[in-house]
Amino acid sequence: MHFLKENRLFIALSTVAVALLLHLDKPVAVWVRTIHDRKSAAFVRYFDIPLYFVTHGTTLVIIACLFFVAGRYYGRRITETGKALSVSFLVSGIAAQVLKHLFGRARPRLTDDLVFIGPTLRGGYDSFPSGHTTVAFCFAYTISQYFPRYSGIFYSLASVIGLSRIESTSHFSSDVVAGAAVGLILGKLLARRLSFMSGGGAASGERRPEQP
Q1: What does the DSSP 8-state code read for residue 96?
Q2: Which of 30, 71, 98, 123 is deepest in the core (most CB within 10 A)?
Q3: Confidence of residue 211 (pLDDT cuts 50, 70, 90)
Q4: 36 vs 45: CA distance, rounded Å
Q5: CA–CA separation, 191 vs 197, rounded Å?
Q6: Beta carbons of 211 and 77 less than 8 angstroms apart
Q7: 2-195 topology per CATH
């Protein structure tokens, strides 16, 4: 309850933003498709391969493992970062999948209309929230607790991942904003709850200073 009270403003603003974007999802999806139909789509395709690599879940798992292994040579803080990233990937991934199938929203490839059918395991009805974006922002929040100097880079990459989900017509804009909000909330919650963060800055919600 204390966590919810502390973050009530962020949760309220995120809810309002998602509610407003629900009414803009269709025109945004139509606009994205018009871009794909134009010659400019050829320019966009140049970014398909690097975006696929960056947004793939395997890439995030590899990053977490590299931190964990590197910690054996570069110190405990690097190991803790790897552990935190691994848990954030697992928890945010599971949470996103649960929410997706609870809401049961139709993906843009099925319809541009606002369609929620409730709890379901049907394919194509797992659009809300964006799982990639949820994991990306949870990842960004977690790693920023250990490397605050580069937080701008981490959040920029997470934003690119979210935008790529809209550009690929895999998600609506509200799916992405909801995923970002869920990812940040989970990141904050994990930073406080995980036992291996206890006694450090990340556990108390404060950022740890970087060591040279």
Answers
A1: H
A2: 71
A3: very low
A4: 9
A5: 7
A6: yes
A7: Vanadium-containing Chloroperoxidase; domain 1 (1.20.144)
